[in-house]
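Quick look at the format.
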Amino acid sequence: MEASHERSLAVITGASSGIGYELAKVFAEEGFDLLIAAEDGELTTALEQLKESGANVEAHRVDLATEAGVIELYSHIQGTGRPVDVLALNAGIGAGGAFATETVLADELKLIDLNVRSTVHLCKLVVADMVERDEGRILFTSSIASTMPGPFQAVYNASKSFVQSFALAIRNELKDTGISVTSLMPGATETEFFERAEMEDTEVGAGEKDDPAEVARQGFDALMADKERVVAGAFKNKAQVAASRVLPDSFKAEKHREMAEPGSAKD
């Protein structure tokens, strides 16, 4: 990637499709060069499409669910010779089903490695460079799932609760610096998430979903405005998060069960 003094650099993980790809589109439209990362073959298609924006785009295919993958991506970032102006930590996966009887431990441990461990690891490496420059922005893709216990998505919801808490804590630590931190909290969004999590027969998986382009735009705008968080998508998402502040966890768990239990999709 050639150095540019006119365009800032955004590094976006999980950018091959869904919210991550749409975030990359918005950043390109807003004058950023891009370094996008993901582990699947769709990354090549995303690269070619994003180049049409006129941005300088580089893609690095890597499995961030491994420690070696995170280190590899960071080495690639350093190899650009450019400061990271924005780090969008978006990579993540889900896993649906009953924890005790249906899900596979290996899948859930990979979920933790990607959603939690890689987020902390890559943030740790990049934020140190931002602190040295006293400049930068970090966008965490959290979820409204972070506000409630998640029966039949137990590990996923827990991972997003971690991300949300982590993002808010880091924001507070950095409040007197030139670095801003924002949490993007989407609801059910029209991506490959539910298919990959084997949740297409659930009420939430089969129901109406938000447009990932709209979610990404809201995330970008909140980040640029230095907002603490943004509940993206439909008004019902904002209402759900607001209600979560006063409802007991047992009630929220029951409501989540109704949405995420296998076979709960309405005819």
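Next, a different chain entirely:
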Amino acid sequence: MFDTPIDSSRATEDLLHALGDQLAARGETYTLAVVGGSALLALGFVSRATRDVDVLAIVEGHQFVSAQPLPAALLDAAQTVARDFGLSNDWLNPGPTSLLDLGLPEDFYERAQRRDYGPGLEVLFASRIDQIHLKLYATVDQGAGKHLNDLQALAPTEQELLDAAGWSLTHDPSEGYRSTLAQVLAHFGVDDGHLDS
């Protein structure tokens, strides 16, 4: 099985255009909300490679719908793209769609960066503000590494981090999470005591 990295904004664009073409050829149209490394690449916030495109949701009107499982037509189109580009079959995956369960940051939809990839595909990339929210949560929840690196690349302000921290606590209010959150905020020189003010 191939596992070619997605290593540039251009590569991300090429893949999504190819996916849009495959969907159009099947008479299908989708709007996807995308987060993570590929979204950061597409919007020029990072230059690191990633292995996949993280689908947060299928967008229907202004509503975010779980992407788990991916619809059959979308999955079929994605697997054709995987073969054509030498990618893993799960290069398009709904890994982060569980974030919908407890809610996205307020005004996520309105802030999203929209791009069309032919008649078959529109993508809503999470905005910088929302990526800060999601990357802070991922850093605390899953550990440092790429998530912390991405968060640093987004150069968040103190207020942006505090806003993101407040939101993340709605997903995990446990003492363990709060303790690790305080450590991550301290890494950025932010006092978590401001969360209570």
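The first helix runs from residue 9 to 25.

See the schema section for token definitions.
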